[in-house]
Design goal:
single chain, alpha/beta, Rossmann fold, 3 domains, nine-stranded mixed β-sheet, seven-stranded mixed β-sheet, 22 helices, 14% strand
Length: 633
């Protein structure tokens, strides 16, 4: 079976088509004259000449001979029907305006000829295509040797995927069924293949029939439905993949190696949220906005979303040179008319920050710069304080001194009942900005800067988060490391988190701590198992899961608010306000200055102790600091 089928030359297809249209004309005359040759022969030579010339021109203009016959598509057949319709119109026009005779192109002959020619010229193409596919199936072996695949979505997209998959050169997959949510379609056939429902019983039946893979044609499924379908398939050992960009399909560039695993982010993210764009637009349009930590995961997404509100300028502030350069280039490439300025600077460098405010005079600040990695901050508490507390203090004081309208700080759920240095440092930053705003209000200093805090949990795909780490471990063949079998976390996507930060910032009137609805907590061990299964592997068989023990400062369960805090709703169902304890600013400022002085000396135990003085609920679970867990006044 090593013989290779050659493509027919274009000139051969062109001549064959001309021969067939002439043959069909003769056949049409024969049927019209009831096989009476005497009547059929009248004017036949003239008619054949007209048919030859007309169709030769039409075939050349529409390039009907240029397609590869074995890959004839609906577009090709539509073109042939159009050519025949135009040819028929030419015959009628010649007969009516030039000949005015019933012996030549009468309406009956033209009609009969149209249908016969269309049938013959399309049928031979389809016959060639069928023979080629039959030959290909024989040369590649029986279909039973191919991997059985089912396509989700019995729609035009699903049918297109089926056609492409079953016609791939050297393809090792065969679509054998469709899956669809609509129970009305169950039991019916689509292009000869059965349609199943998405119920678990249908998934089990497909598995028993040897189906190994489900291909998702619909990438915009409702998230709950997608999770249910994925769970059912994984429970029965059916792998799930999705198609690449549709452009690759249309250009015929697809092979089975391009099928993509379902991203765990697609399963964890919630439905698209809506925000009140008009109110935000009125607050941000034409404003100069400073974003600190602009090259980070949260800061960069904030910038992307803020650009749609047409600020007059966005100042990108970060101290990481290479990430800043790459992000600045991305913004310039994607948003040609965006007014952005890359500003390299450390938020802890007061002189540099003074320069930033003096030169650019920002009207709104989104403060996303922070050290956030718990284990690193446990080993370097003085650095956590300098960056997260002192850096925030510098920016807050400069914002007030330069009449900034609003200061929006990005905090974390780890600031609630903190057990680690990072969370405690962010809680101190919250306390400072809140008490500072209340002091400004008390002093009635005109239009005081409004300080707003937003607090949320882990974001999917952020730098150093668990899912990118799992992927890297998976690429190396495992194992996947989880700190504890029962550890759970809240997750939301970076775009959703940033949308809510912008929304909360717009609604904030100063002094609030906004909490975001993080949905249901996710067990990290379950997340690891699902990541492995989505990659077509079996947990603890192909890829091991290893428990390494809780890291210093790490919690089993995260909290969005403490037991002493109450929650008040806002007009947005996913944003709430925490009613937290209020602090006297004079006392806070004194203790924060003392803490910063200790941190500058890099006194580890003293720094942690002073953090506990400011945040009494801070109970370190790091063995190095547990001796500090004594009652504080």
């Amino acid at each position: 079976m090593g013989f290779k089928i050659r493509i027919l030359p274009r000139w051969f297809v062109f001549l064959l088509d001309l021969f067939l249209v002439c043959f069909c004309l003769v056949l049409s005359r024969m049927l019209k004259s009831n096989h009476n040759w005497a009547h059929m022969d009248v004017g036949l030579r003239f008619m054949l000449g007209v048919v030859l010339v007309s169709n030769a021109i039409l075939f050349y203009v529409f390039k009907s001979y240029a397609g590869i016959i074995r890959y004839t598509t609906l577009e090709d057949t539509s073109r042939l029907v159009m050519i025949n319709a135009i040819a028929a119109s030419i015959y009628v026009a010649i007969n009516t305006f030039l000949l005015n005779s019933l012996d030549f192109f009468s309406l009956q002959i033209v009609t009969i000829n149209f249908f016969i020619t269309t049938f013959v010229i399309i049928s031979y193409r389809l016959a060639v295509r069928y023979c080629f596919n039959f030959y290909k199936s024989l040369s590649q072996g029986e279909k039973a040797d191919k991997k059985k695949v089912v396509v989700y979505d019995a729609s035009a997209d699903g049918m297109h995927i089926k056609k492409v998959m079953n016609s791939l050169p050297n393809g090792d997959m065969q679509v054998v069924a469709f899956l669809d949510d609509s129970f009305k379609t169950e039991g019916k056939l689509l292009e000869g293949l059965p349609i199943y429902s998405t119920q678990e019983s249908s998934i089990a039946r497909l598995k028993n029939e040897g189906v190994e893979l489900l291909i998702l044609a619909n990438k915009h499924m409702e998230k709950g439905r997608l999770n249910e379908l994925v769970d059912n398939c994984l429970a029965h050992g059916i792998r799930i993949q999705q198609v690449p960009a549709m452009l690759d399909w249309l250009n015929g560039k697809l092979d089975t190696q391009q099928l993509q695993d379902v991203n765990i982010e697609d399963l964890l993210e919630r439905e698209v949220i809506t925000i009140h764009n008009e109110a935000i637009y009125s607050q941000l349009k034409g404003k100069k906005i400073l974003v600190t930590g602009a090259a980070g995961s949260i800061g960069s997404e904030l910038v992307r979303q803020l650009l749609q509100y047409r600020p007059s300028l966005i100042i990108l502030c970060d101290k990481a040179e290479t990430p800043m350069h790459e992000f600045h280039m991305e913004i310039k490439d994607k948003y040609e008319n965006a007014s952005v300025k890359a500003y390299l600077g450390d938020i802890c460098d007061r002189q540099r920050m003074e320069h930033l405010f003096e030169v650019y005079n920002p009207q709104i600040v989104f403060h996303a710069a922070a050290y956030k990695h718990v284990p690193l901050m446990e080993d370097n508490p003085s650095i956590a304080v300098i960056n997260n507390v002192y850096g925030t203090k510098v920016l807050a004081e400069l914002a007030v001194a330069n009449d900034v309208e609003k200061f929006v700080m990005v905090s974390t759920d780890k600031a609630v009942n903190p057990t680690n240095v990072m969370g405690a440092s962010k809680r101190i930053a919250e306390i400072f900005t809140q008490s500072y705003f209340r002091q400004l209000t008390k002093d009635k200093k005109g239009n005081a800067t409004k300080f707003v805090t937003t607090r949320f949990g882990n974001v999917l795909g952020s730098n150093g988060s668990v899912i990118p780490r799992f992927r890297k471990q998976l690429e190396k063949g495992g194992p996947l490391t989880v700190t504890h079998p029962d550890i759970t976390r809240f997750f939301m996507t970076i775009p959703e988190a940033c949308l809510l930060v912008i929304e909360a910032g717009a609604m904030g009137q100063g002094g609030e701590i906004f909490l975001f609805d993080m949905g249901k907590p996710v067990k990290i061990a379950d997340l690891a198992r699902k990541v492995i299964k989505l990659a077509g592997k079996e947990p603890d068989v192909d890829i091991r899961i290893v428990y390494t023990g809780l890291r210093p400062g790490e919690k089993l369960f995260e909290e969005l608010m403490s037991s002493a805090e109450k929650v008040m709703p806002t007009y947005h169902e996913k944003i709430m306000i925490a009613d937290v304890r209020q602090y006297d600013f004079a006392m806070v400022e004194k203790k924060v200055d003392k803490l910063i002085n200790s941190a500058r000396q890099h006194y580890t135990l003293e720094t942690v102790f002073l953090m506990k003085e400011i945040v009494p609920e801070f109970i370190p679970n790091n063995i190095a600091y547990t001796k500090l867990n004594i009652p504080t006044n």
